[in-house]
Write the structure tokens for this entry.
Amino acid sequence: MLLLNVSDIHFNHPICNSQMDPDRPFRTRLIQDARERASALGPVDAILVSGDIAYKGLKDEYDAAYLWLTELANACGCVLERIYVIPGNHDVNRTTARDQSVRNVHRAISGAPDGTREGELRAQFLHPETGQALMEPIAEYNKFAARFICQVYTPERLFWYQDLPLDGDTTLRIYGLTSTLLSGADGQDDRRMGLYLSPLQTVLDPVDGVVNLVMCHHPPDWLMDQDEVEDAFNGRAMLQFVGHKHRTRIHRDTHYTRFSAGAVNPDRNVQGWEPGYNFVRLFVTTEAGHRYLNLEAHLLVWQTNPDMFRPKSAAHDDPIYRHRMRLPNLPTVRAQSAVTSVAMSPVVMLQPDPYAVAEKETTMSDRDTRNLVLRFWDLASSQRREIAVELNLLEPGELTELPEPERYGRALTRAGERGLLERVAEEIEKREAH
């Protein structure tokens, strides 16, 4: 499996939608470089975007981002439905964050004593009014992320996860966390250790046959609960992707690997300016009866004169960072015998996955379904409404009371539960034909 990781793209309207954008050449070179590397390494299986897609959380910025990500995906052979995104601090609309209702909920959570903050976050997030206030500063991000099934909403979707097949016995589970819940408090810039993730997001259940990959825009040292987050990440997620610091780094440990993504568009006036991005290949091997997750990482950074991305060298000038981590062996299927010593059929006791109930969106991981969702969101708002109403996919009040990302996220999930995705596809095709 080949992953492409970009972060901190910072599309800044109106300059990003004009011919005077000084950062455009770097984005163009990145696409050209990704195309050349994908031609050598093979097509990209998934694109991971580690936050700060926009600069001020505006619709026009996400429109520009979608066009650029589409061009990037096409260049490296990745289908659009395999793009995964999370919010960063620049995806927060700070004007909205100044609203009194948002300020009140921010202060209630951040001001809670350490022992009660988790409970305060849960109470505020589950409440129908304060939960919506908590989500309001990333409203435009959510509209953008909905087409990739990466939106978050109350009261149950504080983070998302999606599954990809890694090999015949192993699934890669990508978790997208929301580190921006308290970002932009009072409309101001974030303070180090002023943000909060909470155990509500760091469950990262280490189930058999699953490799957890976590995406979080802010590194743990920017969080109030940094020690708890650090422990949860390192103990439960073999692969970690963070952004925000604009520094291209890799940390390899016996049990995990963390990628600190360079920024696609860092501030050119800041010392150490260095655009960057990553290619990461994953594969599973078995040696002497033990299974290993292997990775080959290409950390790519910008140089001028000539303009190009070059590999950040590992030891001994090797352009590839290599690492392997031992995977837990899969449960052994053991034959059981009756008292009469007659051989019985093998029995495998499977622990039920709690997310199967709590996170029904797991069913949306399938590529065909994700493509359907992408096409649904490419329709006009009135057409999305027609389909949801015609197929009776909305509960009373949802059409008028819920933001679109939540409204149609729920509607499409219900379509999957009720076996109506083919009907949704038929309705989309009718409208696409016109």
In short: The radius of gyration is 22 Å. The first helix runs from residue 24 to 41. Residues 334-359 have pLDDT under 50 and may be disordered.
